[in-house]
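USER:
I would value a second opinion on how I read folds in token form. Give me a protein, with the fold worked out from its sequence. Write it directly below this note and I will take it from there.

ASSISTANT:
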Amino acid sequence: MRFCRFGEGRLGLVEGATVRDVTAALDVLPAVRYPLPACDPFIANLPKVTERARALAPGAAAQPLAGLKLLSPVANPGKIVAAPVNYKAHAQEVRDNVALHNNNPALLKSINEIGLFLKANSSLAGPGEGIALRMLDRRNDHEVELAVVIGKEARQVSRADALQYVAGYSIGLDITIRGQEDRSFRKSPDTYTVLGPWLVTADEIPNPGALDLSIAVNGQTRQSSNTSNMILGVAELIEFATRFYTLYPGDVIITGTPEGVSPIVPGDQILASVEKIGSMEVAVRAAAGLPVASHA
């Protein structure tokens, strides 16, 4: 199934070019009170929501997908885990281009050496919310990635069992300000993690390691590859992450980007695509009311 969030937090079931409003399916979620759970309640109860949504769908109001303001399909991830330089060609691209590595030794190492990193949850946005660029005097780059949404609590998971912990998949955009600061800092401004356009449940993508992915800016293709070119695949990334911390339902892993990263500027229009998920359009603008002067 394909679930989207749209408008003011409504839940939709995507059927081709139509969305059925199944927000009432969220009534099966348990009531929560402080202290809040360390997970996203929708994802933690996805089987129950799916069952209810399937029952509601035939009588649910339908509307065209086109024109809807799509939000991130996951509202409250506990953490966003990111995989740096996880494609061989991109790793070489970074090493060969000083504009990408900025003479930062940490950017010249492999994913196995430097591990994973976290992005701020406040950086999360849906495709309908767009990207608001900061530090306009510095290079801001696009990075298209397969995004993995964790479906159940996971710790010390083996790669052989890892895909059993996946709720579904989305397209991820990891937007990056180039510079000397730590990755997490430069990749965590508001709207610098775009997730969407919807959540495709894991049963529809049994093999996440063989998906074409691409990004076009203003109609020009800039990145095009396949997830088979990842250094660490989805199962290996889950194994790697859960050696260090517990993953909870709704946690998101963005799995790294292929070669072809390049700058974006206000006014650009992005079209990001991943096979078996679809495509999402994202508009780029300047962040409102912020100074553009660099502190680098």
Notes: The two ends are 45 Å apart (CA to CA).
